[in-house]
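REVIEWER CHECKLIST
Item 1: Sequence provided? yes
Item 2: Single chain? yes
Item 3: Sequence as submitted:
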Amino acid sequence: MLAEFELRSNSITCYRFILDIEQLQVVSDELSAKLTFHPQFESPIGLLDDYISLLGGHVELDSRVKVDIPVQAKLPGRPFWIPLSNKMIQYIEENRVPQQEIEISLSFYAVCHIPNNYYRSRNDSEWEKRIDQALKLVTGKMSTFTVYPPVRVRIHREKWSNLLKDAGYKSFELLELPTLNLRPKQSDRWLQVTGRFEEFIHKERMGYYEDCMRNARILLEDVMVLLASHTGVQLNQKQASGKIESLVASLKKRFPTIIDSIESLEWLMKSINLSSRAHHHGGEVVVAMGGMRKQVKYISYLLAALLSASVTLLEDFVPENEST
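Item 4: Structure as written out by the authors:
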C-alpha cells in the first residue's frame, strides 16, 4: 500500500516522495518506539534532493488530536521516523473501527536551500515561466516546502498488529508471562497456554471479537488442565462449571493454607466461564458489557489475572516426585 506526498511552494510541486506502508519498521527501546521509513525524493521540476536539509511534520489521529513529527536532518542512509508513543497507540486502538484498516493523516514539511547558481533547462511555456517565478522567491535562502492538505494513510490491520508487536506494546499492564521451570510435559502446556493468550490478544487487536470469546473458553480449559496436572488433582466433570467446582474443591483440600488464593482463582475461572459459555456451545452471541468490544476487553483482563494467579501456584508448588 503506497502513499504519495507532494512538497509544494507557491502552488508548485517541488518534490514528491512515496511512502510504502508495508516497508514501515519499528525501532524501540525501553522508553519509546518509532516508525521508520526511507523516503526517496524526486523533483518534477528538476531540483536535486541534496537541497533538502531537514524534514518534519505531524500526525493527525483525527480532527482533534495532532502529534508533531520532530524535525530531523536528512543524512545519507539515515531513516526518518514518526513517534509511536503508548498514548498514541492507545488512542488509535480505542477509536479504530474493528476489522478495518487503521487510518491516520500525515503531513510533512521540508526545509530546503536552493543555491543562487541553480540552473535548470526550460522552455518558454507559461507553465515554465510560472515555475521560474515561484523559484525566484525561494532561491538563495532557506525555504520551507509543505505537504498540504495532509495525506490520509491506511495501514492494514495485520500490518498494524505486527507493528504493535514489534513496538512491545501491550493493551494491558497486568502481567508479564514468565518462562516457568516445570516438568517437560507441564512446560509444554504452559507454552500452549501463553501462546493461546497471545493469540487472543492478537485477535482482539484485529477485531475478531467472536473468535476471542470462543478462544477464552478453550484457554480456560487449558489452564485448568495444567493446574490439575501440576498439582496431581483430578478433573472429574465434563462441563466447565463442574470442572471448576471439582478443581477448586481438590485444591482447597490439598492446600488448606492458601484458601483465599484458591477462592480468587475460582472467581476468575467462573467469571470467564460465564462470559464465554454461549460461544463455546455454539449459541447466540451474548453481550453483557455494553458491547462486544468492551466484553472482550473485560475477558482479556480476567484471563491476564487468571494466568498471573496461576503462576503463583505453579511456581510455589513442587510435585512430590521432584522434591529433594
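Item 5: Key structural point noted by reviewer: Helices lie at 86-95, 126-136, 157-167, 184-206, 209-231, 240-254, 259-280, 292-316.
Item 6: Recommendation: ____
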